[in-house]
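The methods section describes the discrete structure representation at length, but only in general terms. What matters is that the chain and its backbone geometry are given together, residue for residue. For illustration, here is how one protein appears when written out as sequence plus structure tokens:
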Amino acid sequence: MLHDALAAHRDQVMRAWVSLVQGTIAPESMPTIELVDHVPKFLDEVIADLRAAAGEPAAAGSAPGETARGHGEQRLRLGFSLDAVVREYGALRDAIIATALAVEIAPSFAELHCVFSSTITGIARAVSEYSRQRDAEQQRLHNEHIAFIAHELRNPLASAMMAHEVLSSQGHIPPDIRPAVALSRGLASMRDLIDHALSIARSASGIELHRERVELAQLLAEVELVAEAEAEVRGVRLHAHREQDTTLEVDRRLLCSALNNLVRNAVKYTAPGTDVEIRSRLDGTHLVIEIEDACGGLPPGKIEAAFAPFVRLNTRETGSGLGLAIAKQAIEAHGGTIRVQNLPDKGCIFVVELPISASTI
């Protein structure tokens, strides 16, 4: 039986595997103890699979293929490519078959199928863990990068806000004219956005919500007020419609930021002389907020990428392409969803749904 032959010649299998791997898949300079780490245990799991397939009781131990997860994580730390991880398991399969033939054991079709199946399982689990750990590391580096940029933006922004306050206090900027109000709100929004970016980057679990009770009517009024000055400059009319009021238990700052991004985005792309509609209603277990604009509709392929970072829906306007991505992140942190409906040759509707369970009607 193949499992008996592999158990009896286990060291021979490992030597054959090392000869296949070292200098081709793995560097020749890598210590053997690091190179073979996890592999002997995985070989034992293959042998256990063969015993189980033959109807014999398997030895106690971890589930077949489970060792491959640790192997994938270790290979990432050692700098192996994903291709190299996959080829390592192919080399182990070849070493098993070569050893069997060397000791004059002809594996049956069922035994070969079992070896191949176990190897594929190992590849899948190793690749999955490798990818998960790699993505987590990339996210960590991304958060560090965002935190660095946000931190560096704080100083010039603080200088700008201080200069604005000085000019206002000396009467150089009349506080009641709309451009002055828009400037003040814009600086405050930038400060909030930078603080928001820092808080996300510093939180290991993503966005940390600080819920408070907020009246829906008050929330929408604030959103409308923020976009009002820009709408007037662009010749766009804002209209808010609310079917029913409710008290929400939400992170006020985050939700305001998300809705502000959506409404200001609508104002930005809407044709002059047309309307932006902000509608809200209760729909069963959800609060639905719709922002409809008159941008003329989305170009082909833009719906799918609407909420991806750095994607701008219309190249006629400048911008970072982060507004919709930030809005999506904030809405999903509340357990909600956001989507866009295209109205060809007319505009589009951004639909936000928030669970009623997070609010008190």
